[in-house]
Known about the structure:
83% helix; rod-shaped
Amino acid sequence: MVTALATRRRSPIAVAAMSADIAVLVCGGWFDTMTASGGTQLSVAVASAAFVELPLAACALLMARHAVVRIADARALVAGAGVPLP
């Protein structure tokens, strides 16, 4: 929810929220796979990690990278206009 709101508002906090989401998705996929007892449970855990959690983490990574580039471009534009930045 925080990631969605921060992204919608184009806040720099969105990058940190996306980074946290990436960590949770990757760790969740790893944890599910490592704790599966085998057989069908392991197959479902691996499929869930490979087709849901890791692609979502990759998407969040691309979005975070795009946000960082956009923030840097905006800071350069504002600094070029002579506005002091913190």
